[in-house]
Design a protein that fits this description.
Structural class: mainly alpha
Number of strands: 0
Family: Belongs to the exbB/tolQ family.
Protein name: Gliding motility protein
Pfam families: MotA_ExbB
Strand content: under 5%
Shape: rod-shaped
Subcellular location: Cell membrane; Membrane
Radius of gyration: 31 Å
Keywords: Cell membrane, Membrane, Protein transport, Transmembrane, Transmembrane helix, Transport
Largest sheet: none
Length: about 240
């Protein structure tokens, strides 16, 4: 209880600029919570491992099975969307360039989701620091202006009040800025690891699709020729 009382007094003595810093702090905390949930709870470093489950089906040319399996798992595994896009391109004989283009399109979109709002933490941290500095300057200006026209007996109290406002604003600005900057480093590192895992899984699938593309094409041509011969025999 005593701590809260001291905190309330410090906030009151900090002057007007304590309120903008409070708004910045609340915004940064909201972003930290949302990003931590998105990157640590909803997303796992398991996309490469998930992609390994498609190797046998791709090598056998079972594109329909690959697409169905990938689409069913796309909600929990972002790499599944890239797998489905690449398999669909391979199924339609789009070529290696089209397979890569379709997969890259999905991977770029998924990687962009990893960085949503995280960059705001550095901005908010810097703004909180600068706002605290602005509160410091404002408090010092107010202090010296009051002292200049005050009675000698009141100068000490007015000067100490102005310095108190300046120091409280500086301290609160740093209190709001430091967690935001630390959280940015942690979240950015997590996002980079998730992106590496996602891209590595996508690259493995692309390599399998690329290697299986020519055999798959030959197999499809052979199957089509066999069907055509059977049809000709039936018609004859």
């Amino acid at each position: 209880m005593e701590f809260l009382t001291k905190l309330a007094l410090a906030f009151e003595h900090g002057g007007f600029w304590m309120w903008p810093i409070l708004l910045i702090q609340v915004s940064s905390i909201a972003i930290m919570i949302e990003r931590a949930y998105a990157l640590f709870v909803r997303r796992k470093i398991s996309q490469t491992q998930f992609a390994l489950g498609f190797e046998e089906s791709i090598r056998r040319g079972e594109m329909d099975q690959v697409i169905t399996k990938a689409q069913a798992a796309s909600a929990q595994n972002p790499v599944a969307r890239a797998i489905a896009a690449g398999a669909f391109a391979a199924k339609n004989l789009g070529g290696k360039e089209e397979i890569q283009g379709k997969m890259d399109e999905v991977l770029l979109e998924e990687n962009a989701h990893l960085d949503h709002r995280t960059g705001f933490l550095t901005m908010l941290g810097n703004v909180a620091t600068l706002t605290g500095l602005l509160g410091t300057i404002s408090g010092m200006i107010k202090s010296f202006a009051a002292v200049a026209f005050a009675n000698p007996a009141d100068k000490a109290s007015l000067l100490s009040a102005g310095i108190s406002e300046a120091m409280n604003a500086t301290a609160y600005g740093l209190i709001a800025a430091i967690p935001a900057l630390v959280a940015y480093a942690i979240l950015q590192n997590r996002a980079n690891r998730l992106a590496e895992d996602l891209n590595q899984g996508g690259l493995k699938v692309y390599n399998w699709l690329s290697y299986a593309y020519e055999p798959l094409t030959a197999y499809q041509i052979k199957t089509a020729n066999a069907k055509s011969e059977r049809n000709n025999e039936i018609n004859a």
